[in-house]
Amino acid sequence: MATCSATSVNFGASLKPCFNNNRTDGTSALNMVRVVWTKNVYPSLRTSRFNVCCAAKPETVQKVCEIVKKQLALSDETELTPESKFAALGADSLDTVEIVMGLEEEFDISVEEESSQNITTVQEAADLIEKLVQKKEG
Amino acid sequence: MLLLLLRHRLNFMMNIRCFQRSFSAASLAPLQLPSPMETHLWYILPNEVKNASLLNQYLEILSPCEKENVFRMRGDQLQRRALLARALVRTTIARYQTNSQVEPRSLKFKKNIYGKPEVEWQDVDGSHLPPLHFNISHTSSIIACGVTVNSAIGIDVEEKQRKLKNNILAFARRYFSPYEVGLLTAISDPEFQRQEFIKLWTLKEAYVKALGRGFSAAPFKTFTIRFRTATQGHLSERRDSKAFDVVVDSFDDPKNLTSNWQFALLELAGSHYAAICIEGDRTTEGNGTRPMKLTVRRTIPFVEDECVSGTDAVVAIVGLT
User: Fold this and answer.
1) Are B244 and B227 contacting, i.e. CB atoms less than 8 angstroms apart?
2) Complex ipTM, two decimals?
3) What residues are paired with B147 via a beta bridge?
4) Number of inter-chain CB pairs under 8 A, A vs B
5) What are the phi and psi torsion angles at B244 (to 5°)?
6) pLDDT for residue B273 is more than 80
7) B210 vs B202: CA distance, rounded Å
8) Cβ neighbours of A9 (radius 10 Å)
9) Pick from B318, B308, B303, B320: which is nearest to B48 by CA?
């Protein structure tokens, strides 16, 4: 537990914002996230999440960040990362439900209420979106 | 860094009598337990609590895990809110242990399978410990904790002025039951509709929190909150609150004794709607239509209590005397 806390603090401090428009080297911000993770974190309990952490497209992650920022009235300068927890940003249950509704409209998907407990971070939201979008198109 | 490392022993006394304040030795004054079917509601106004050494005192009674959670919050305001919430729960519950002095920091908590926090009672000397139940809710400007004996409890508070980012009816159609959508659709004034929406939301949240299941395990579409009166009506403060009674109909589980859930809705501290849901006593006759017996206190842990029942800080809307 203490380790999780320490790494999440370091994690936040060393990451660039969710989606960096100024990158010229062709790599996405999300790949950079992955590199930092493998260096600084010893295996977390949620290794399955690590495996899918790059499944969601950067555009999806960015869209989630935009919707979250809008719902929680965060400034554009607020740094959001894939691991950003909605609750840590001040979201209450009504905010979370509004975020989910915003994501449903944006991506034309339907999120069952049972799944909403699994949407606690930007990454989790993006992963679920991708899963539902693929299911729809599949 | 939110808190100074200053260790300063403050000499304050908890005041348990209404409308009086006095100061003496620094321990938490004990509280009398709520009687069965009685609810105690405590709240802190975070804007009143900024003293660094007091906040430090609160930090000292948290568990290591709780402290980490506090510091994970982004920014001073959110950290202070998280800190006050845990301090309110620990100090309040500790004060109800009338048999022996319980240290707030020694309380242990666990979560049920849906994630609802509960006290993990440690029956150290075999004495019978009171089956206290609690539930908290907070906004940016209030932190509330409801306490009962023998009844499951859920509470929710929302700022009266809260505005949805989404369209209210679209939101209701997506998440609420058809009956509730109809109720909201029938309201033509947008501001009034918004207020009724917030009240309905708090009642629904209080119910799923009392159930111990939360929004995910008790989707809002699977039950209806309605107001039982002679005439169908809205939740107007101008009506006699005794004329209303809130009941819940559950679709998924019709055998569930939904008449065993008792609700109250009130305006709190002039700025919030607060909904409380408690499990009724199944051994009594009747179906929970008696008004809820509620005592409301504003508090600053280690500093003061003020009983605010019967003042402007508590305005009954439904379900209270």
Assistant:
1) yes
2) 0.82
3) B40, B134
4) 66
5) -115, 155
6) yes
7) 12
8) 13
9) B303
Taking residues A50-70, what's their average pLDDT? 81
Q: What is the DSSP letter of B234?
A: -
Contact (Cβ atoms closer than 8 angstroms) between residue A82 and residue A126: yes
The reply to whether B131 touches chain A by the CB within 8 Å rule is no
Pairing of strands B38-44, B293-300: parallel
Residues of A in contact with B165 (CB under 8 A): 70-71, 98, 102
Is A113–B220 a contact, with Cβ atoms under 8 angstroms apart? yes
Phi, psi dihedral angles at A131 (to 5 degrees): -60, -45
Q: Is B171 helix (H, G, I), strand (E, B) or coil?
A: helix
> Which distant-in-sequence residues (6+ apart) come within 8 Å of A26 by Cβ?
none
For residue B204, count CB atoms less than 10 angstroms from its CB and return exposed for 0-12, middle for 13-18, buried for 19 or more. Answer: buried
Q: Quickly state the pLDDT bin for B39 (edges 50, 70, 90).
A: very high
- What pairs with residue A3 in β-bridges? none
pLDDT band at B150 (very low <50, low <70, confident <90, very high): confident
CB contact under 8 A, B201 and A94: yes
For chain A, how many residues are written?
138
Which residues fall within 8 angstroms of residue A93, CB to CB, at 6 or more apart?
B205, B214, B215
What proportions of chain A, in percent to the nearest 5, are helix, strand and coil?
A: 60, 0, 35
Residue pair B136/B265 in contact (Cβ under 8 Å)? The answer is no
Q: Which of A71, A101, A116 sits opposite B216 (nearest CB)?
A: A116
Using the predicted structure, report yes or no on whether residue A49 has a pLDDT greater than 60: no
Q: Do B74 and A88 touch (CB under 8 A)?
A: yes
Q: For every residue of A73-121, which 3-state class applies, written as one string?
A: CCCCCCCCCCCCECHHHCCCHHHHHHHHHHHHHHHCCCCCHHHHHHCCE
- Asked whether the predicted pLDDT for residue B260 surpasses 80, the reply is yes
- Catalytic: A25? no
Q: How many angstroms separate the CA of residue A35 from the nearest CA in chain B?
A: 22
- Looking at chain B from residue 231 to 260, which residues have their Cβ under 8 Å from any Cβ of chain A? none
The mean pLDDT value for B296-307 works out to 95
**Is the pLDDT reported for residue B200 higher than 80?**
yes
